[in-house]
């Protein structure tokens, strides 16, 4: 591990102690995992603590671990990953927190710590169904308000469940079961054995 990462790892271990569930290095960044109950407290210290100064949240995303490791995963299903940046100290960190309830994943909103989390948390709510308590405006951001389900969950059907269209007779948007027709999706160059020869004949007349 590079010296700068080793130094950051030691600082984090000393600062948070038992609040860190695990800590490691991957892709030249330190990753720490903390419990949901400690999330806000840890986030405030990461932002304000001496030697840390992670004043900027650059990304936040939901995760569904239900099929992770080809089904070998036996931990909690939903997590949120926060990517933090300290501009002053030129260092980054990855923070992961698992929602304790698989049936209703709930985590505290970090918008009070980093306002940029607003739309990121709405996206995680929309696509994964992760609820963020005390979020100022938690509603869907990418799918329609009447959309059923959360499309980034691993058990969401690939073809979806409903589709919407404008009905000229009713003069409004309606929802109906998906009506996608089966289609051939294998590229023609693979389906036709002599595709290259036929194309060559066409070009040569």
| CATH topology category name | Beta Polymerase, domain 2
Give the radius of gyration. Answer: 23 Å
Summarize the amount of helix as a percent range.
10-25%
Binned strand content = 25-35%
**What would the principal axes of the Cα set say about the shape?**
elongated
Secondary-structure element order, N to C: HEEHEEEEHEEEHH
Could you tell me how far the N terminus lies from the C terminus, measured between alpha carbons in angstroms? 63 Å
Largest beta-sheet characterization: 5 strands, mixed
Number of domains: 1
How many β-strand stretches? 9
CATH class annotation: Alpha Beta
Low-confidence stretches: none
The total count of helices amounts to 5
The averaged pLDDT comes out at 86
Q: CATH homologous superfamily name?
A: NADH:ubiquinone oxidoreductase Nqo5 subunit
Protein model, in words:
The protein has 205 residues and is of the alpha/beta class. The strands form three sheets. The protein has a five-stranded mixed beta sheet. The protein contains five helices and nine strands, in the order αββαββββαβββαα. The model has no long low-confidence stretch (mean pLDDT 86). It is 24% helix and 28% strand. The N and C termini lie far apart (63 Å). A hairpin with a 4-residue loop joins strand 8 (162-167) and strand 9 (172-177). The chain has one domain: NADH:ubiquinone oxidoreductase Nqo5 subunit (Beta Polymerase, domain 2, 2-Layer Sandwich).
């Amino acid at each position: 591990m590079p010296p700068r990462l080793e130094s950051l790892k030691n600082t984090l271990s000393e600062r948070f102690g038992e609040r860190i569930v695990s800590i490691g290095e991957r892709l030249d960044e330190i990753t720490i995992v903390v419990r949901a109950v400690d999330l806000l407290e840890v986030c405030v210290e990461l932002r304000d603590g001496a030697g840390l100064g992670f004043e900027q949240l650059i990304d936040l995303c939901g995760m569904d671990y239900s099929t992770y490791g080809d089904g070998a995963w036996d931990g909690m299903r939903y997590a949120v990953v926060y990517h933090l940046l300290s501009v002053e100290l030129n260092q980054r960190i990855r923070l992961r927190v698992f929602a304790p309830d698989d049936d209703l994943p709930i985590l505290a909103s970090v918008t009070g710590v980093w306002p940029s989390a607003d739309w990121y948390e709405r996206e995680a709510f929309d696509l994964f169904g992760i609820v963020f308590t005390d979020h100022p405006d938690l509603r869907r951001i990418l799918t329609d308000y009447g959309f059923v389900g959360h499309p980034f969950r691993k058990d969401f059907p690939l073809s979806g469940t409903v589709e919407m269209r404008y009905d000229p007779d009713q003069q409004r948007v309606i929802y109906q079961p998906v009506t996608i027709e089966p289609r051939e999706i294998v590229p023609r160059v693979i389906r036709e054995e002599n595709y290259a020869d036929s194309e060559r004949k066409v070009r040569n007349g």
